[in-house]
Amino acid sequence: MYYDYPGTNEDIDYTEFYVGTSYEFIDFKFWWTPNFFSIGKNARYLDLNLNFELPYDFSLVLHGGYTDGRALDPEFADLTGLSDYLDYSVALGYSLGPVDLEVKWLDTDLSGDFKVSNGALQNDSRVIFTVSTTLPWDTGGGEE
Predict the structure, then answer these.
(1) DSSP 3-state of 112
(2) Which of 19, 39, 91, 142 is least surrounded by CB atoms within 10 angstroms?
(3) Which of 78, 75, 102 lies closest to 90 in space, CA to CA?
(4) By C-alpha distance, which of 92, 102, 90, 88 is closest to 132?
(5) What is the DSSP letter of 107?
(6) d(C-alpha 28, C-alpha 21), whole Å
(7) pLDDT at 108
(8) What distance in Å separates the CA atoms of residue 66 and residue 62, rounded to the nearest whole number?
(9) pTM of the full predicted structure?
């Protein structure tokens, strides 16, 4: 994965690698980057999602994540002042044909100077509404 933050005043773009597994309604991933936010320091992230199909084409996703910058590179915490933190979210989705709708509440346990309420690195409590689709749409008509 490559993260690009265009229009920011700082060079904070970076690449991340992950391995993961899924079983029934559980998804787990371990993420690692050698250059977190282009500061030249390692960081890792544990990602757990519980996915539930609900009646009437609704879905529920519970997410928990843990960022650990000290484990692979203790200088990360010293440089950023940030050693570890949790993030979490609850999302309710609905499929409307080829269009997916989702409303998600998310937050972190960050506080003080690390709580960012605007910009590319916003991490305060908020609600996000998403509309998405995948093209091309399958019209079910078969090949011509």
Answers:
(1) helix
(2) 142
(3) 102
(4) 102
(5) E
(6) 5
(7) 87
(8) 14
(9) 0.73
Tokens 């899924």 locate to 22
111-131 residue pLDDT tens? 766 666 666 556 778 899 999
The Cα 94–Cα 26 span in angstroms is 19
Residue with tokens 């996000």, as numbered in its chain = 128
| DSSP state letters, 23-85 | ETTEEEEEEEESSGGGSS--EEEEEEEEEEE-STTEEEEEEEEEEESTTT-HHHHHHHS--EE
Four-CA torsion 24, 19, 104, 38, nearest 10 degrees? 180
Main-chain phi, psi angles of 116, to 5 degrees: -110, 125
96: tokens are 């409307």
Residue 38 sits at the vertex; the CA angle it makes with 36 and 16, to the nearest 5 degrees, is: 45
For residues 65 and 39, is the Cβ–Cβ distance under 8 A? no
Does residue 98 have a cis peptide bond before it, meaning omega lies within 30 degrees of 0?
no
pLDDT of residue 16: 85
Residues constituting the chain: 144
- Kindly indicate the confidence band of residue 71, based on its pLDDT and cuts at 50, 70 and 90: low
